[in-house]
Amino acid sequence: DVQLVESGGGLVQPGESLRLSCVASGFSFSNTDMTWARQTPGKDLEWVASISKSGAVPSVTPSVKGRFTIPSDNTKNTLYLQLSSLKTEDTAIYYCQTDDGTRGQGTQVTVS
């Protein structure tokens, strides 16, 4: 079974950094395009960043460009989201997901 387990969220102050992790299992992580998305109460799921395993340059949504990066480690089957210069509007539950939309349980990031 496909499993995605996110971790690394927490409560931080504006301007601080966090690194989220997503450990994947049950599929070929090294050959699967992966995405981070986030959701706040009452709002739709928002795409944040994606990485293509074909080697294309990772892409991020404009509101986080220059602040978030999306590295991955195929040896550990782990996707990361490096968040820096955090803003209060970055507060959300962050999910990693596969290219078919399978998501983990999410990890809460609160910037306050």
Keywords:
single chain, 112 residues, mainly beta, 6-stranded mixed beta sheet, 5-stranded antiparallel beta sheet, 11 strands, 0% helix, 46% strand
N- to C-terminal separation? 37 Å
The 3D shape can be described as globular
- Let me know the number of strands: 11
Strand content: over 45%
Strand-pairing-aware structural class: mainly beta
Largest sheet: 6 strands, mixed
> What's the alpha carbon Rg, rounded to whole Å?
13 Å
Mean pLDDT, as a whole number?
95
Please list the strands of the largest sheet in the order they lie side by side.
2-11-10-4-5-6
- Which stretches are low in confidence, meaning pLDDT under 50 for 5 or more residues running? none
Helical content band: under 10%
The H/E string reads: EEEEEEEEEEE
Contiguous helical run count? 0
Word description of this protein:
A hairpin with a 7-residue loop joins strand 5 and strand 6. The chain contains no helices and eleven strands. The termini are far apart. The chain is mainly β. Helices cover 0% and strands 46% of the residues.
Layout of SSEs?
Elements: E1 3-7, E2 10-12, E3 18-25, E4 34-39, E5 46-51, E6 59-60, E7 68-69, E8 72-73, E9 78-83, E10 92-98, E11 107-111
Characterize this entry briefly.
The chain is an all-beta fold. 0% of the residues lie in helices and 46% in strands. The chain is built from no helices and eleven strands.
